[in-house]
Q: What sequence folds into this?
C-alpha cells in the first residue's frame, strides 16, 4: 500500500510537460522525480532507480527484467503507461509483492474508432485520394 511519504520516479522525460499529471502525482507522493535527458533509463539505471524509490512510472521502452526485480528493495508499485505488460517480468515482481498497474484498456475506444475510420477509408477509396494530395502538396508519395 502506498503512503504519503512515498517517492515516485517517472522514466518518461516528456511527461514533465503534463503539468496536471505532475500536480496530481505531487498530491500523492512526497517527492516526484522525472528522468532527465533525452534517453530513457537502461537496465542498469533501472536497477538503481528501483533501489531508491517506492513507485516507478514506466513506458513500453523500459524493460523490467528479473535482474531489475532483484534490485527492487523498497519498490511497492510499478505504473506502466502502455497497453501491454510484456516488457515487465510479472512473476519476478509479483513474487516480491510489488503491485503492477497498467492502462491496458485506456485506448480501446480510440483504437476501435481508428479501425472503423480505416475501414470507411478503404470503402471510399480514400487512400488513393491521400496519395493524390501528397503528390500535389509534397511532390512525392
A:
Amino acid at each position: 500500500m502506498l503512503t504519503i511519504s512515498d517517492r515516485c520516479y517517472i522514466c518518461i522525460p516528456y511527461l514533465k510537460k503534463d503539468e496536471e499529471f505532475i500536480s496530481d502525482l505531487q498530491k500523492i507522493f512526497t517527492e516526484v522525480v522525472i528522468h532527465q535527458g533525452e534517453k530513457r533509463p537502461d537496465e542498469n539505471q533501472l536497477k538503481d532507480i528501483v533501489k531508491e524509490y517506492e513507485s516507478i512510472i514506466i513506458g513500453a521502452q523500459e524493460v523490467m527484467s528479473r535482474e531489475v526485480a532483484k534490485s527492487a528493495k523498497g519498490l511497492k508499485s510499478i505504473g506502466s503507461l502502455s497497453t501491454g505488460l510484456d516488457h515487465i517480468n510479472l512473476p519476478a515482481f509479483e513474487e516480491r509483492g510489488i503491485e503492477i498497474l497498467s492502462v491496458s484498456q485506456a485506448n480501446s475506444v480510440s483504437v476501435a474508432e481508428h479501425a472503423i475510420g480505416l475501414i470507411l477509408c478503404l470503402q471510399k477509396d480514400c487512400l488513393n485520394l491521400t496519395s493524390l494530395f501528397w503528390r500535389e502538396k509534397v511532390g512525392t508519395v
Remarks:
- The chain has two domains: 7-102, 108-137.
- Strands lie at 7-10, 31-34, 55-58, 77-80, 99-102.
